[in-house]
Amino acid sequence: MSSIVQRAAWRAARRPFTRYASTYRKSSSEHMEEIGRDSSFNPMIDINTDPEPLEHYEYAPPVSRQYLTPYGWNDMAMRRNFEDPLPEHDELHSMWGPDIPPPGVSSRMALTHFLLAVGAFTGIFFSIKSFLTPEPHFIRRTYPHDGLVTELGGLTENKARIEEESED
Q1: pLDDT digits (tens, 9 = 90+) for 5-45
Q2: What is the pTM of this model?
Q3: Is the distance from CB of 9 to CB of 67 less than 8 angstroms?
Q4: Residue ranges per domain, the chain?
Q5: Where are the transmembrane segments (predicted)?
Q6: Fewer CB within 10 Å: C terminus or N terminus of the chain?
Q7: CA distance 103 to 101
Q8: Position 122 confidence tier, pLDDT thresholds 50, 70, 90
């Protein structure tokens, strides 16, 4: 872990979070009255527009919860206190977000490790299959006259391959 990220995580862990955002929200009846007065209301535009940023809301620093110590929180699994406001990108910085790659592991090295693991599993599978699969306890069926091609009315181009019998 780089020292810059460690310092940012330490500062974020020491800074107290604000408990409540001071915003005024309209009730649903006030909102419906406003919509009723506006004759050009389009619900698709109203739903998809971003809200205005909150003026007095302290946003948490963008530090992943994976960098924070697991002790000293009310919710130790998610590494947060109860009634703390959620950061803007909580789904990205929470414990359930994408894993942070360990320091010193590049994408090329990760791909190399993945391919080595796949090759090892594949090699183990095929070695077990080839060495531990027993021979069948029966003799494979053979047909006389080149596999009965002419007797069954088939074409000579479509005849099955013929296995030569070994003298074991």
Answers
A1: 666 666 666 655 444 444 445 555 565 565 555 555 555 55
A2: 0.39
A3: yes
A4: 3-93, 107-158
A5: 111-132
A6: C
A7: 6
A8: very high
